[in-house]
């Protein structure tokens, strides 16, 4: 379901592909389509395997559709258009699948939210979400073990963001009966920083303000709307500082789109924010179809591995734990989760999905003559 972004390298509308797959190590991989990718998912005797060329990487299982995807809200809206699962215990809601920055010609250059709406909204029935729809969907998801919810969306005109988020929080509390509902509010940097306290008062456990780019001049170029509409880069930084004061260390998150600016400046920003107590996470940049940077290429895997290792060192150095990452970020089974696991910082959070993962032994052999190619993945 394309409720916010199309994260594939190439857009497809007629074929339905899995959301994600798991390796035999239980590592979750987003299923990303590219017709000429070197990786493929192939089938033999009821089992599926990930290969690079003809080299077997792992037996894989597909992430199954949550049961709440089959349900409808009280006003008849399919819940799969309201919230998306993003891990064993997390869902994310894009209350708006469009961004008003487009009308001003100020879209972030890497973003394809508006292009995604034009291609998928009518096809998949994606529309604005009401607080009641979100609350009912989340309540149903909790029955399956989904504990955490992130509320996000594009810039929306003619409505104050904070009022909508308060309405959502109140609706969730009313339907679930929970004062602490495991919510993260993903918001833009407000002109009046005092409104940040209202998110906390409404019941959100964590807050996110995504800076995206650290370098000041590149920020102006890549994120013109964030620069011109929200008080400029410094106001975004000031907002993050205030969020830490209100929500506390480890309960504030900021994502970066990694691979557009130099690694040195990005790490400078990550170090600065993690020292403040912000869970600053670089995300792998996919040059999304429909964005102004479509057709560009991200850096090499080695570039990212080095960035992620250095980011993890900064997170650890500044006392940000695995639980901080879990509470604040709408990611799960990310490379940072595995870094924490390797260091012995495990989360005691489990869900039935983990029991469905199939494992393959070290001596498993794939008979190439019996393999059917299913789809190419990046």
Automatic annotation (TrEMBL):
InterPro entries in the record: Aldolase_TIM (IPR013785), rSAM (IPR007197), rSAM_sf (IPR058240)
UniProt entry keywords in alphabetical sequence: Iron, Iron-sulfur, Metal-binding, S-adenosyl-L-methionine
Keyword Endoplasmic reticulum (UniProt): no
Start and end residues of each Radical SAM core domain: 85-323
Stretch forming the signal peptide: none
MF (Gene Ontology): catalytic activity; iron-sulfur cluster binding; metal ion binding
Gene3D superfamilies attached to this UniProt entry: Aldolase class I
Keyword Nucleotide-binding: no
Domain of life: Bacteria
NCBIfam families named among the record's database cross-references: variant_rSAM
Name of this protein: Radical SAM core domain-containing protein
């Amino acid at each position: 379901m394309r409720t916010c972004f199309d994260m594939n390298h190439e857009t497809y509308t007629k074929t339905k592909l899995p959301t994600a797959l798991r390796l035999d190590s239980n590592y979750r991989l987003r299923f990303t389509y590219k017709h000429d990718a070197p990786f493929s998912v192939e089938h033999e005797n009821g089992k599926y395997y990930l290969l690079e060329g003809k080299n077997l990487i792992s037996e894989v299982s597909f992430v199954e559709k949550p049961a709440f995807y089959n349900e409808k809200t009280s006003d008849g809206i399919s819940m799969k258009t309201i919230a998306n699962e993003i891990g064993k215990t997390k869902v994310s809601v894009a209350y708006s699948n469009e961004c008003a920055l487009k009308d001003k010609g100020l879209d972030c250059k890497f973003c394809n939210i508006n292009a995604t709406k034009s291609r998928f909204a009518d096809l998949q029935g994606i529309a604005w979400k009401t607080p009641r729809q979100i609350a009912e969907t989340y309540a149903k998801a909790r029955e399956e073990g989904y504990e955490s919810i992130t509320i996000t969306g594009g810039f929306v005109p003619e409505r104050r963001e904070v009022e909508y988020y308060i309405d959502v929080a109140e609706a969730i509390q009313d339907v679930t009966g929970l004062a602490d509902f495991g919510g993260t509010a993903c918001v833009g940097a407000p002109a009046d920083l005092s409104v940040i306290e209202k998110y906390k008062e409404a019941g959100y456990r964590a807050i996110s303000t995504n800076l995206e780019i650290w370098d000041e001049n590149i920020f102006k170029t890549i994120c013109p709307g964030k620069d011109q509409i929200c008080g400029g880069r410094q106001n975004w930084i000031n907002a993050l500082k205030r969020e830490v004061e209100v929500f506390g260390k480890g309960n504030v998150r900021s994502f970066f789109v990694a691979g557009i600016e130099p690694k040195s400046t990005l790490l400078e920003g990550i170090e600065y924010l993690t020292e403040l107590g912000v869970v600053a996470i670089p995300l792998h940049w996919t040059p999304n179809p429909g964005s102004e940077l479509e057709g560009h290429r991200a850096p090499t895997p080695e570039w990212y591995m080095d960035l992620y290792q250095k980011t993890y060192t900064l997170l650890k150095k500044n006392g940000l734990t695995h639980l901080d990452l879990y509470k604040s970020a709408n990611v799960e089974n990310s490379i940072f989760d595995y870094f924490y696991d390797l260091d012995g910082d495990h989360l005691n959070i489990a869900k039935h999905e983990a029991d469905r993962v199939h494992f393959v032994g070290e001596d498993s052999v794939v008979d190439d003559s019996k393999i059917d190619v299913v789809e190419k993945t990046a």
